[in-house]
Design brief:
Layout lengths: L7 E10 L3 H9 L6 E6 L2 E9 L4 H12 L5 E8 H10 L4 E2 L4 E5 L11 E5 L11 H13 L5 E5 L5 H8 L4 E6 L2 H13 L6 E5 L9 E7 L2 H13 L1 E13 H13 L2 E9 L2 E8 L1
Parallel strand pairs: 6-7, 8-9, 8-11, 9-10, 11-12
Antiparallel strand pairs: 1-3, 1-4, 2-3, 5-6, 12-14, 13-14
Helix pairs in contact: 4-5, 7-8
Length: 285
């Protein structure tokens, strides 16, 4: 291979219906060493990933297309040189003002915070969670409403750690961040260090158990089937009066998720909406 060619990256832009977003992102993460970026495109989304030029690239492209075959995906590709790839990747992540208080700032961007702002420095790495996706935005806004100073918080499926960092910045006394993906654990721990929150946050590999807690707030931004499966154990891990925030599902899954939360003994308080996406807030009475 020409040495000049080794400094190239193949951009794969995969357009899928919104309900297939998570599946497409999971597929692309298997092949993309720097994770994926997700952009809204009307009623669809575009999931982008970058594959380094290598002798194995042709096989990887075939494997990606096979894996995407069942998702009604449209795939576009183009070559980028190393310097173009670096800038294209970073361009996906601007400084985000979640509210008048919460601000998400990528580590490569400069930002002068105002006195009232709680700024989260973030490097998503290969993990999910930049604050751009509607499900993440809604969970962040719900956290801002329910996290009280001194609260004990669980972030289940922490990804990049964005919900964990927000809870800590909002005044939580302790935050436990759990994930089953070692890459997410690594990214979350790095982001905790970047924000100097090691004294408040603990990041561990694993999932929720009834023996954990009890917590004042549990937040999880995963998928409807997992939320339904874990509704009972999450409810058991809440303190009386504790709040559960669940996101990561579209409108047609909202009713079954709400039913599972109610069956677990929780009282539905409100549902946040952003396009097709929904986030439920429920309380343990």
């Amino acid at each position: 291979m020409n040495p000049e060619d080794s400094a190239r990256w193949l951009e794969l832009a995969v357009e899928v219906p919104r309900e297939a977003e998570e599946a497409a992102a999971d597929i692309l993460r298997r092949f993309a060493p720097r994770g994926v970026a997700i952009e809204p495109a009307g009623r669809c989304v575009v999931v982008k990933a970058y594959l380094p030029d290598s002798g194995d690239l042709a096989r990887q492209r075939r494997a990606v297309r096979r894996a995407l075959a069942s998702l009604a995906a449209t795939v576009h590709s183009r070559w980028l040189r190393e310097e173009d790839w670096a800038e294209a990747w970073k361009a996906f992540f601007p400084v985000l003002h979640i509210s008048q208080r919460l601000v998400i700032c990528p580590t490569w961007r400069r930002y002068r915070a105002r006195a009232v702002e709680a700024v989260i420095r973030l490097d998503p790495g290969m993990a999910f969670g930049t604050g751009q996706h509607p499900t993440t935005l809604m969970c962040l806004r719900a956290l801002e409403e329910v996290v009280q100073p001194g609260a004990d918080v669980l972030d289940l499926g922490t990804g990049s750690g964005i919900l964990t960092l927000a809870a800590a910045r909002l005044g939580a006394a302790s935050v436990l961040a759990l994930d089953t993906d070692p890459q997410a654990i690594q990214a979350a721990r790095q982001n905790v260090r970047l924000n100097g929150l090691e004294a408040i946050v603990r990041v561990e590999e694993g999932t929720v158990q009834a023996a954990l807690g009890p917590f004042d707030v549990i937040a999880t931004n995963i998928s409807a089937p997992v939320i339904v499966e874990l509704a009972g154990v999450m409810a058991a891990a809440l303190k009386p009066g504790g709040v559960l925030i669940v996101g990561g599902f579209i409108e047609e899954r909202a009713a079954p998720v709400a039913a599972a939360l109610t069956a677990a003994g929780l009282s539905m308080e409100r549902t946040l909406s952003d396009g097709d996406w929904r986030t439920h807030v429920a309380r343990k009475t």
